[in-house]
Amino acid sequence: MTQQMSDRLLFEGVSCELICWAGGELFDPFAHGLQPVRNCTALDRGVLAHYRVDERLWLDELMLDHALPGPPERKPRLGRGPAINGVSPRTHPDMGFTSHYPRLDLPLDFDGGLLIGDGDACERPGRGSPPAWVYLRLRELVFAQGELIEAVDHSEIAAALRERDRRFGDAHRVMAYPAAEAWRQAFAYDYGFCE
User: Fold this and answer.
1) Residue range(s) defining the domain that contains residue 49
2) In the chain, how many domains are there?
3) How many Å from the N-terminal Cα to the C-terminal Cα in the chain?
4) What confidence category does residue 76 fall into, taking pLDDT thresholds of 50, 70 and 90?
5) Where would I find the beta strands (DSSP E) of the chain?
6) Helix (H, G, I), strand (E, B) or coil at 183
7) Which domain of life is it from (predicted)?
8) Residue 127 DSSP symbol
9) pLDDT tens-digit profile of 112-166?
């Protein structure tokens, strides 16, 4: 699997990668009349989003290839999606998405947790999505109806797991053992680290 493009989240003036979320639906493109199409192996979900947090969670920008309605074909016809929050899409000039929604400023009523990271502390795997502990700064943001209720810095436990991996090369295996219990219990939500 190709390394996936990550959604981004602006928090405290820093652009972070959105590693994962749990507890609720973050943004449902289908609820807004969109039909995302996977346009490359680096974007399996077919949607790339940029979020922002300033006391609450906002969707600022959305990029996707939208499948137009029509008879089922081997390859869907692509076009622009419907307007969202009063913003009509345009073609993205650099990335080629057929539906680019800049400056959406859409409030999200998300209930759950977001795990965000910034700064590479070690080499990332070349395939799939990088594990949470590869980030120099790892934070969990907890929301109720879109309002930020807690921000917790988990950088120290990520650093401890990186150090164990550096010494023993077993970070992936250790997640399934009692040695990672402190890691698992530190988070407000189950992000599926041990699946």
Assistant:
1) 27-107
2) 1
3) 17
4) confident
5) 8-11, 14-22, 36-37, 47-53, 57-67, 78-79, 99-101, 106-107, 112-120, 135-144, 147-153
6) helix
7) Bacteria
8) B
9) 999 999 987 566 555 456 678 788 999 999 999 999 999 999 999 888 877 877 7
Residue 45 within any structural domain of the chain: yes
Is 39 a member of any domain?
Answer: yes
**pTM for this structure?**
0.86
The pLDDT score that the predictor gives to residue 127 is: 47
Which residues 6+ apart lie within 8 Å of 16 measured at CB? 8, 9, 10, 116, 117, 118, 137, 139
Q: Give 23-69 pLDDT, tens digit per residue.
A: 988 999 999 999 998 877 878 788 999 999 999 999 999 999 888 88
**67 three-class SS:** strand
Decide if 20 is inside a domain.
Answer: no
The encoded tokens of residue 10 equal 């602006």
HSE of 183, CA atoms in CB hemisphere, 13 A:
25
Give 51's strand partners. 9, 59
